[in-house]
């Protein structure tokens, strides 16, 4: 159908005569038709939306208070159940506190603030003094449009939520200042001369005869349950036990007595940021950290072969006792886990 048939003016046609070429300009379609919201014409609906925003801010306030109560009333403790209970309460409090503020801000903007679409022409980066003055006026008009000055309850709810929420971050931070700065506790673990290597989590001692070539055991000290804080001690003392063909082992001269008939034991704590290293690839003898893919060569002193880690995994010197059980010769000879400011580089 031609332009004359449709009654359109030829000057408004935005096509070119060259196939595939883009038009030189596009007609400004303008703003879409504005549709009033229910609250724009119904004062009761507008007031209802305001009460909803206040309620959302109120939820945030209550959740923040709940977080603080849970932080002091539900300490993590030493059992998995107490840690689960504490983390669940803290997580729900923090989530509801943030969600309350976020939903309140979104609902306020959508239901109470002006929703007329506006557009402005592009200008040079440095606006004229008149435009800068107009921008300041527009900001003032926006603040007036939010009606925060005329909505005392809403203003109070917003200020309360925003003022209380930082406590959910500050209180735990302040509460962790103190003993946690004592880095000397990272220098030693529960491993001692003669401590039997036991399976995790059963605590069953391991005999060297039970470890076949290619097998992997997750290991803890046999007497871990006797520790005052067993979970804290386990976090430092966990070990991965692997048996290789002795011909595949490459051992430093000062460590030739640290293994037993191809059985080697290394800390499971990644030297990058402390994730559990437990993915063993039997063919390559590589040990992978699932967090950031640091890779260690178990056959060669657990040296780093890939990834962000900068240190080999600390090796636990082992041997067997008179009954054939695997035992530690000593504690690790270096601190386990990531670097810290008092740990010397090597």
Automatic annotation (TrEMBL):
Keywords for this protein: 2Fe-2S, Cell membrane, Disulfide bond, Electron transport, Iron, Iron-sulfur, Membrane, Metal-binding, Oxidoreductase, Respiratory chain, Transmembrane, Transmembrane helix, Transport
Domain of life assignment: Bacteria
Keyword check for Ribosomal protein: no
Any one Gene Ontology cellular component term annotated for this protein: plasma membrane
MF annotations from Gene Ontology: 2 iron, 2 sulfur cluster binding; metal ion binding; monooxygenase activity; oxidoreductase activity, acting on paired donors, with incorporation or reduction of molecular oxygen
Pfam families from the UniProt entry: QcrA_N (PF19297), Rieske (PF00355)
Membrane-crossing residue ranges in chain numbering: 53-74, 86-109, 156-175
Function, as annotated: Iron-sulfur subunit of the cytochrome bc1 complex, an essential component of the respiratory electron transport chain required for ATP synthesis. The bc1 complex catalyzes the oxidation of menaquinol and the reduction of cytochrome c in the respiratory chain. The bc1 complex operates through a Q-cycle mechanism that couples electron transfer to generation of the proton gradient that drives ATP synthesis.
Assigned protein family: Belongs to the Rieske iron-sulfur protein family.
Protein name: Cytochrome bc1 complex Rieske iron-sulfur subunit
